[in-house]
Design a protein that fits this description.
The structure is a homodimer.
Chain A lengths: L4 E6 L2 E3 L5 E3 L3 E6 L3 E9 L1 H16 L14 H22 L9 E9 L5 E5 L5 E3 L16 H7 L6 H18 L7 E7 L7 E5 L4 H20 L7
Antiparallel strand pairs in A: 1-9, 2-3, 4-5, 5-6, 6-7, 7-8, 9-10
Helix pairs in contact in A: 1-2, 3-4, 4-5
Amino acid sequence: MLEKGLVFMSDTRTNAGFDNISKFRKMTTWDTPGDRVLTLMSAGNLATTQAVVSILDERSKSPEDRAPSLLAVPSMFQAARMVAETLREVIDGHANVGQRASSTFHATLILGGQIAGGPPRLFLIYPEGNFIEASEDTPFFQVGETKYGRPILVRAYDPEMGFEEAMKLLLVSFDSTLKANLTVAAPFDFHFYETDSLEIRHKGRIEAEDPYYNDLSQGWGDALKATLDSLPDYTME
Amino acid sequence: MLEKGLVFMSDTRTNAGFDNISKFRKMTTWDTPGDRVLTLMSAGNLATTQAVVSILDERSKSPEDRAPSLLAVPSMFQAARMVAETLREVIDGHANVGQRASSTFHATLILGGQIAGGPPRLFLIYPEGNFIEASEDTPFFQVGETKYGRPILVRAYDPEMGFEEAMKLLLVSFDSTLKANLTVAAPFDFHFYETDSLEIRHKGRIEAEDPYYNDLSQGWGDALKATLDSLPDYTME
């Protein structure tokens, strides 16, 4: 959550074991230009998150059935409730019919966006169907493999940063994870939403071979080493 | 594992829930100057790791009973086997009498050192009693809360670094974890073993209020931000 707007980034790797990795988009955007833009990102069981997106998507596509649609809810809070409720229903549905260990169907979602008349808002939605909202004190959320990329976010996040700088920070954070963990991989999808624009302006994908990303990754690695070198060494007694 | 020797660092926080945190040393060293130096670090169940250390310690203190002692084994490999066997026995012992879920008694150990006649060696010992050895390809081990501090190790580790520089890297790695996770906290115990010295030379504790550590933590945070700033921003279309 920045002063300028909301920034989202997700990787595209899913896995069901080391020999079963695939590439799937984990970011979905719904919009009605001039009225609302909503972005959903997911981590966890792919069948669950795809079902949630499909249900929400079908609802938003049939105009006559728009009453319970993300394109019709009056506020971001109601949107979060709808997504959370859908998530809980999908998980419960799987858990009741098949395997009892519902934990394997778990998923966690991040929903952010703006609906005309309200400010941009950002939510973290738990598999149990409850959710929390980002605030000044906790201005960003991560889901999935969060730990490797967190230290740089904690240290360098600044609500006043622009989108160009935010892109750099997010790519560096993802790159730190990538270097240490096989479950996260490029390409990276991004959506940078400008407050009060109520339309999609900056949305796209950074490919693994993207020259900016590769220069950044290399440059960051070199700069980190140089930075560490620049700090005073310990003095052994 | 460095060309200069072996470097060890451990934090001192243990917890059994958020309202039950304590400070315990997680590093133990045994030595016979001129013959051997061994260092053991632990992560996991504190009762288990303390029992392992106590058993190994008692054996190494009674000269008449030295046959199965860490101070008598002929090689680092045999030392690793002895520690691993002790760990497995302690875990099995707890699991058989009390709670069946032996996973709660789990612990993972790092053992490193040198015994006269052999090179310095470094082992990671699993709760099942098996172990692996560090090599050129995998020159360092972490146990416990490993993820936050890993990216900087991956990026900045260099086998040719000296002890003064290694201290800096280890403190920065721990500090990244500290900033993100409540289960890791200063003071930090360290032991830097010089190859072929066969004695303890650099062993001590970095307190939370240590001025070098605090300057480093502050300097690293500032430098990280400056480093990120120095890299080119993304250009939005």
